[in-house]
């Protein structure tokens, strides 16, 4: 009967590399007190011996879990495939950034009171907490409010309330980019679509930047902000119905998010209003689906890889210059705003 192959230990690596066992331990816990030459020798010995450090033992010694908990807030009525693709893209950026820092991610979808849980750090299930997801579940954000306001190792995406550590896209700049783009294409009578009265302030920041850039050019925007639907796509359709019923004249639309823009595009097409022939249209979020709309939709795209990096860096590093960071944005110009 064959004997089981003995797994290599840290002592074996230390002997092969000609160093102490404690040096091997410090190499694999990321100590900066080890020279690069010694680190390289230990890594080479570990690879030659097919040695894998015991992460669990290392974490017990350090008091760290090596895990970042990520909560995705959804609406109770949404199935997994109905969650905003933007959230999945942002989650991907967070997971990639966590992996680069040597952390695993624990992901939890939460939508109703019986699911709400955010005490991962307190219960030592994770070293940090990141909260993402829809702004259309106020009960969830109220649950996480005290955690995000009091727990140093927690952070969220967006602007749910004051005194929360957060990262968000540069909404004000995004609004300015939208205005500058429309103005450069000759549009002079724009409309802004999107609810701006909620506690989450991303949409109002986009509107502020939009109006600021227009004002600098002698322009202004009509705002359709009080939208009844709880569905972003439906809000876009509703806004177009309202503009038509009011008989308002306009030549362009800046929608607060891509789903509102896509809903508006459907309603405009149904009414025989040509985009961009009669109305230019621009959204916000950079969803992949916008490239396949008819016509392809101009959009403001946040850098979600950088957003994920900022969220992870901020939640792991105790000392920061401010409570909020901004992820960069860029304008993706497509046919929906093309003139001439």
Describe this structure in words.
This protein has 340 residues and is an alpha/beta fold. It has 3 domains: 10-62, lambda repressor-like DNA-binding domains (434 Repressor (Amino-terminal Domain)), CATH 1.10.260; 67-168 and 305-325, 3-Layer(aba) Sandwich (Rossmann fold); 171-302 and 330-337, Rossmann fold, CATH 3.40.50. The chain is built from 11 helices and 12 strands. The strands form 2 sheets. Strands 2-1-3-4-5-11 form a 6-stranded parallel beta sheet, with helices on both faces. α1 crosses α3 and α5 (85-100) crosses α11 (304-316). The longest helix has 16 residues, at 85-100.
Short structural description:
This protein has 340 residues and is an alpha/beta fold.
Task: Assign the CATH architecture of the largest domain.
Answer: 3-Layer(aba) Sandwich
The share of residues in helices is: 40-55%
Q: Span from first to last CA?
A: 81 Å
Report the portion of residues in β strands.
Answer: 15-25%
Mean pLDDT: 89
What is the alpha-carbon Rg in Å?
25 Å
Q: What is the total domain count?
A: 3
- Class inferred from helices and paired strands: alpha/beta
CATH topology value of the largest domain:
Rossmann fold
Low-confidence stretches: none
Strand order of the largest sheet: 2-1-3-4-5-11
Keywords: DNA-binding, Transcription, Transcription regulation
Domain HTH cro/C1-type: 12-52
Protein name: LacI family DNA-binding transcriptional regulator
InterPro entries: Cro/C1-type_HTH, HTH_LacI, LacI/GalR-like_sensor, Lambda_DNA-bd_dom_sf, Peripla_BP_I
